[in-house]
Specification:
Layout lengths: L7 H9 L8 E6 L4 H14 L4 E4 L11 E3 L2 E2 L2 H17 L6 H16 L3 E5 L20 E7 L7 H4 L3 H8 L9 E4 L4 H13 L4 E4 L24 H15 L8 H9 L8 E5 L8 E5 L5 H11 L8 E4 L7 H8 L5 E4 L16 H8 L8 E3 L3 H10 L4 E4 L2 H29 L1
Parallel strand pairs: 1-5, 1-6, 2-5, 6-7, 7-8, 10-14, 11-12, 11-14, 12-13
Antiparallel strand pairs: 2-3, 3-4, 9-10
Helix pairs in contact: 1-4, 2-8, 2-9, 3-4, 6-7, 10-11
GO molecular function, one term: dihydrofolate synthase activity
EC number: 6.3.2.12
Keywords: ATP-binding, Ligase, Magnesium, Metal-binding, Nucleotide-binding, One-carbon metabolism
Amino acid sequence: MPIDLGLQRISLLLLKLGNPQLSWKTVHVAGTNGKGSVVAYLSLVLTSSSYKTGRFTSPHLIRKADCVCLNNVPVLDQTFALAERRVLSVNEVEKIGATEFEILTATAFEIFHSARVQFAVIEVGLGGRLDATNVIPGANGGLGVVATGVTKIGLDHEGILGNTIGEIACEKAGIAKQNIPMVVDATNEVEALASITRVAGTHKAPITKSVPDLSTVTAFGDLSNLRSPLLGEYQLANLMVALNILQVILPVAPQITPQLVIAGVESVQWPGRLQKLTLYYRQNTPGLPLLLDGAHNGQSAVELSRYLAKNREEGLTFVIAITRGKSLAPLLSNLLQPQDKVVVTLFGPVDGMPWIACMSPAELRLEVCRYVAPERVFVCENQVAALDKARELHRGVVVCGSLYLVGDLLRAHERVRSTNDDASSGLKDEKT
């Protein structure tokens, strides 16, 4: 079933499952860009503070079960499948007609309930107000949502969320709960901040405007030397949203200490976002050093381009695939320069998201040629051929345009490394 936002089906599905979502304290995070890393910071600090913590993010990167973590470890495929079967059964018996994302959300909540998590850090899937994750009520002294966060807002999914920054921000801020504190990234555009502030006000939600300055969070002592392992200048803004959320939830999470905040932040990892990797994509072939980034809209392309600015003199090789229906100009115009070369490719079907399709390479090539001369643009529908071509071009390689493409390549990397490890183990066995 394609995207169909609304809370009626998920509410009924969860009711028939016994309302598992009412069993823990929740931190709920929305935004166009940055919400995943904010969720990662939060869940690591909570886990470091000895709280049993669930984490729900989407889409998955390598395996469908990656969406659901317990204490920052993805659940086993068997654990995920068991919970999913129960959810699917209830959906079928009760004739609810839940969407794939609603099934996924309910599956995550079932797993959290069975694991008896104390906190769940939950990333919005799409928008906020009508997203399936927005079914958990405000805690108001008990279990439920104890804080909400809104990261950077940009133009994305305009056909669903609205055509202006203000309209999209209203949808994202729709996760606000009555009297529950909200933290918003203050580096947002004025129009976005105005919309978020207005929505928070209607819920009497105390709002903290988070600025990218470590000295503004005082609950954890001197954090001036704190550094995130995640690359990119924008990560300071994301980190500050997380730190401000941790500060406002201290009354309900008193085990958090300055030392544990530092330990959690400094151990964070977020694959597929400015990730440097030597990628192994075929057996008996040397790895290809490259940068993986899920940049898929104008705002994320700007941040990626800023990161790449130091190495642009001789041009870069981009390996790109983009989801059908995406606005291309904001992404490509901010990313590509005339001296670059581009290899256009495809990503494969996305597990659990049958409505997602890749733009045809021929169509994407036409758009890319608006920014890069046609003789510098290559079409390779096969990902292995695309990477071979990128290697042949002898320059820095950047893979971007879609997290689905990044996920495909990380799966291939995992497969090849696993096979190589098995072969290496076999050779060792033969020698002993």
